[in-house]
Amino acid sequence: MKRVMLVEDEELILQGIRYINDWQSMGMQVVHMAHNGIEALEMLKKQPVDIIVTDIEMPEMNGIELISNVRKIDNRVRFLILSGQDDFNYARDALKLDVEDYILKPINEQQLQDALINTSNHLDEIDQKNSENERKNISWLKFLSEKLDKNEKEKFCNKLPDFSGCEIYPAILRVDLESLQQPDDINIISKEICNINFSVRIIYLTTDVVLLILQTKIGEEISVVEKTLTDFQNEIESKFGILSFITIGNNINSYNDLPRSYQNAYQLQKYRILSGYGNCISPEYIINKRSRDVAIDQNKLRKIILNKNQDEVISYLDDIFIGNLQDEVNVDVPYQIVLKIIMLLEEIKVEYKLEQNDNGLSKILDNIYQAKDIFALRTMLVLEISGIINELHAEKSQYTPVVRQVMKEIQDNYKEDMNLKTLSYKYNMNTSYLGQIFQKEVGCTFNQYLSNTKIEKARELILHTNMKISDISKEVGYPDTSYFYRKFKQHYGISPASLRNMKKY
């Protein structure tokens, strides 16, 4: 049963569409009815649909804007457009957004039913094609990871096109999904790569990984292949904003050797952490790379953390990364840095009996190996250390009752407009004296603790909700979003928007 959403601002027409069709006989069910694009998007967050029938002219967000927004998150859903006017511009915009049909009002019942049935059939074809592609991808992944037995491997290779008289260079292209405007923009790669000088076969292995099999003349230098792919990479970045990281395996003259060469290219993908997106590398890239012992003054870092000095933590982390990564180093060096620091943090947590999740360390390690560049690794450490500093601030046993009361007041009412003067009046104390004992016991001023609390709450909302940054700013007590941005970056060394973009690390 395919799920359908109806979007129409006129209630009479909306109800008419709902009841003029026998949805069940068409294998469909109306699960949402909305009056504008914004309302429709909210409903889609709760339950996705297969088909959306939408009006064009609506208040707050029109049909074209709705389709454009949905396309950013779901490329499978199909659209039917309803319009009261035969407007060429609307029709043109609709075609760009891959709309199934454009139906004029007043709505012809039979025309709408035919359009719905055609759309349903088209959706079945899309699903079948995706299923077939999935099966092909699984076969390729098994072949490349050498999980086929001898007979299966021979059958697989025999189905591949002959390349006698040529050599092959396999390359892995990984796309930064955040650089895609729409999910299917990754298909631009297959269209654009046809323009390079080599014959190329393209296999989409996962949502962000593409295998390129390049046929070259015998004896072609790998440097020529690297330059060709670098030029292609620069082309799709400048024209479409698509960021990628490409690694090239060694040349081969038999499909039997493809898995080995693919694995070489796959191992090079680890160097994305050092090179970043926008680069293309070959095995020659790592010839001069060397491992080294990582120099970290753990006693100094420990002292900074226990002194709860956030700014000094950020500065020292920058010094560590710059000092250890300025030379030609192996990819294991940045991981050594992070692992040594993470182990120090775990020691501090145990020693000071700070809160620890059962899966805390394993989750951190997963995040380390999923980080897409050095900046993401550094940010992950800043966030971990910031959490420890906040817990050290919140340790209750060392505080006098009045300081604990002030801290609880901040935790409970950080959104409100509060200051030390009003709290000192509430607790019948001298403002200056309360400020002095608070700073002495907590290690920072009242205003700094209040600011840290707000920023920490904002971080949680950024990482765990889909709220707009401007709304989060107001939610934690910063009406001025620009000021909130400055305070957040000062605290974490990264902007709120950048942190949200990196929350998949």
Automatic annotation (TrEMBL):
Task: Tell me the superkingdom of the source.
Answer: Bacteria
Q: Does the keyword Zinc apply?
A: no
Asked if the Swiss-Prot or TrEMBL record annotates the protein with the keyword 4Fe-4S, the reply is no
Q: Which UniProt keywords apply?
A: Cytoplasm, DNA-binding, Phosphoprotein, Transcription, Transcription regulation, Two-component regulatory system
Q: Name one GO cellular component term.
A: cytoplasm
Role of this protein: May play the central regulatory role in sporulation. It may be an element of the effector pathway responsible for the activation of sporulation genes in response to nutritional stress. Spo0A may act in concert with spo0H (a sigma factor) to control the expression of some genes that are critical to the sporulation process.
Recorded protein name is: Stage 0 sporulation protein A homolog
Give the classification, highest ranks. Bacteria, Bacillati, Bacillota, Clostridia, Eubacteriales
